[in-house]
Amino acid sequence: MILCLDVGNTQIYGGLFVDERLKFQFRRTSQLRSSSDELGVFFRSVLRENGIDPDGITEVAICCVVPDVMYSLRAACQKYFNTDPLVLRPGTKTGLKIKTRDPREVGADRIADAVGAVSLYPDRNLIVADFGTATTICAISRQKEFLGGNIIPGVRLSMEALETRTAQLPSVEIMPPETAVGRSTIESIQSGLYWSNVGMVKELVSRITTEVFGGEHPFVIGTGGFAQLFNREKLFDAVIPDLILTGLLEVIRLNRLPEPVAKAAP
Q1: Contact between 259 and 96 (Cβ < 8 Å)
Q2: Is the CB of residue 61 less than 8 Å from the CB of residue 251?
Q3: DSSP assigned state of 145
Q4: Where are the domains of the chain?
Q5: CATH homologous superfamily for 97-243?
Q6: Looking at the domain that runs over 2-87, which CATH code has it been given?
Q7: Is 109 considered catalytic here?
């Protein structure tokens, strides 16, 4: 059994693969700085509550954009699962050619998304829009080249900025509005958040398609916590909430050591 963990700025998103098929997923806040014991006990408890024997975990894969968490997370895996986790970082085999100016600065979450997309849709030009704490839009060529992309404040981050940096604007529920013109302060914020993101995705997909794919329409994937919010706008060819976990599973496959060849008997 394989445990995959995506450690983001807001939450830890985990998934368990049994026979390389996703069995269940879970989430935990990552804003609390937890000890290795707290993390280890939490992971084992989640597994037990879902009918899984924690001692059956044989491999752990991690992508993390919160460096302060990594020491505790690695120690938790070593102590509570008796395994050293595979951490996605520069030098890890991904099957991608990173074409950015400095491949070392590309976030592990963006790479995991790209690996997952390529594994599901090989031989296609791809755009992945991940709606997390930050919204990222990444372009991957059919030659498995990670070309770069965009990083934008996420939907909730934008809403929280309005709430904390203004005197009279409240926190609102993030939801699709009925109209583009809000008739109250709350409706105006909801409409602004929603339609600005719809327009942003359309514009960036259009520009990326022209600039790097020669006008040939790529396959567009939506993922992350808020991707489903925009389903009705038909922005994506597919919405795959667990894309990053699929990518981590593929990274595990790519980095497994080959089985030793048995020597023939003399």
Answers
A1: no
A2: yes
A3: E
A4: 2-87, 97-243
A5: ATPase, nucleotide binding domain (3.30.420.40)
A6: 3.30.420.40
A7: yes
Question: Is pLDDT above 80 for 31?
Answer: no
> Hey, which bits of 108-252 come out as E strands?
126-131, 134-140, 145-153, 219-223, 238-239
Rounded to whole angstroms, the Cα distance separating 264 from 213 reads 51
Helix boundaries (H) for 146-230 = 155-165, 185-212
Q: Write out the two tokens for 65.
A: 């954009």
Q: Which residues partner with 78 through β-bridges?
A: none
CA–CA distance, 220 with 102 (Å, rounded to integer): 25
Closest Cα partner for 37 from 7, 77, 83, 82?
77
Q: Are 2-87 and 97-243 equal in CATH topology? A: yes
Question: Which one of the listed residues 19, 102, 109, 130 is annotated catalytic?
Answer: 109
Give residue-wise pLDDT tens across range 171-210: 888 889 989 998 999 999 999 999 999 999 999 999 999 9
Are 8 and 67 within 8 A, CB to CB? Answer: no
For the whole model, what pTM was predicted?
Answer: 0.90
Q: Using CA atoms, how far apart are residues 171 and 193, in angstroms rounded to an integer?
A: 12
pLDDT tens per residue across span 215-260: 899 999 999 988 999 988 999 999 999 999 999 999 999 998 665 5
Distance (Å, whole) CA 129 – CA 233: 14
